[in-house]
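So, read this over?
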Amino acid sequence: MPDLTIDRTLAEVVNLEPGATRVLESFGLDYCCGGRQRLDHACATIDVDPADVLEAIADLGPLPVADWTSMGPVALVDHLEATHHAYLHTELGRLDALLDKVVGVHGARHVDLEGIAATYRVLRDDLEPHLQKEERMLFPMIRELATATERPAFHCGSITNPISVMMTEHDRVGELLESLRLMTGDYTAPPDGCASYRALFDGLAQMEADTHLHVHKENNLLFPAVVELEQRWAAPA
């Protein structure tokens, strides 16, 4: 693993070794919204030895290369919609219904469920319009920019403007996911939790992991590539 060193950013670690996401998650390292941090600097803030992180990644062994690491903007946008967006469109409703069921059965004994449910619904209320804005506005702009034969004129001016909004919303989603993790004790169901209780917490944990990877692909791959593409159009001939 010669390319993985402690001076790599967290985003670079994931791009070089996509399987490292679960290792970084286990150490509490934010590779999506915090992907620009160097590994050693990020580890220092949480008192973790970066050598331990690299060793855990090495222990994963050889993993298949993820196709998305080399995709162009159009292919990456298509990939995001077909995988992460499609997943959330289905999973958000499923988890909402599961929450209703678990709160109804266990809410009297586990009063923390009401707070978990409220936080989850704030998250869903943030995510659903966010997905729509990407699918109906930003992603079509990216496709147009990537396939244009002359510089396109967007109603918002520079494409960096909606990208900035999306990144701010990503930060908010990250904060809400962190709140859910804390409120659920790292998604650990109580001893008296039924199968639905465990399924709920497992589903929330999976959604967090998928959303972290989703945001990483946008913040650290797609958006920088698109900004660079627009800057090329702006450069004098």
